[in-house]
Amino acid sequence: MSSRSQQVDHAIVAELQRDGRQSNVSIAKRVGLTEGAVRRRIDNLIESGAIRFTVAVDPAYLDRDSAAILRIRCAPHLVDEVLGELSSAPELAHLYLCTGPFDITAVGYFSSNAELREFQTARLGSIAGIVEIQSDVVLQVVDTSIGVGDEADADDAAAAGSRT
pLDDT tens across 122-134, in order? Predict the structure, then answer.
């Protein structure tokens, strides 16, 4: 993908991150393309797996005000089985296979520290292959998003889009 084309796609993605409900017409005006070009680019981004649309729910809305980072060490031959078990846990929002002293890092949301303790002892404690668990309670979530760039990047991409 050319640099200019990538800049335009990044500008479109930045617009979707700013307001995922805005119309293609609105995005087109902001990035300097036609509505059809924006629609095709979004379709291509979806088809390639570069973006997907989801609904992000504030854990507090679900009465899950207590966040925790869980680091899990596994028996080497059971890592995949542990991941399979954890992937069905509704308390866990993110699950990562990692290098380093712990095999798995998970981010979970719980209604209380007591629920976190119960999850660790009863749920995780019953999974064969888990050797060690380390948890950190999150005191404050500062940022939960990843962006494609700052406003200057979006302005540059919009300018590039007007030439595309």
Answer: 999 999 999 999 9
Question: Could you tell me which residues are beta bridge partners of residue 100?
Answer: none
- For residues 163 and 33, give the distance between their C-alpha atoms in angstroms, rounded to a whole number: 9
The pTM (predicted TM-score) of the whole model is 0.70
> What is the spatial distance between Cα 104 and Cα 72, in angstroms, rounded to a whole number?
5
Record the tokens describing residue 151, joined without a space. Answer: 């406003």
Instruction: Supply 76's token pair.
Output: 């080497």
Calpha distance 24→38 (Å, rounded): 6
Contact between 16 and 51 (Cβ < 8 Å)? yes
Place of tokens 């950190």: 136
Cα separation, 111 vs 100, whole angstroms? 30
Among 106, 72, 69, smallest CA distance to 89 is for 106
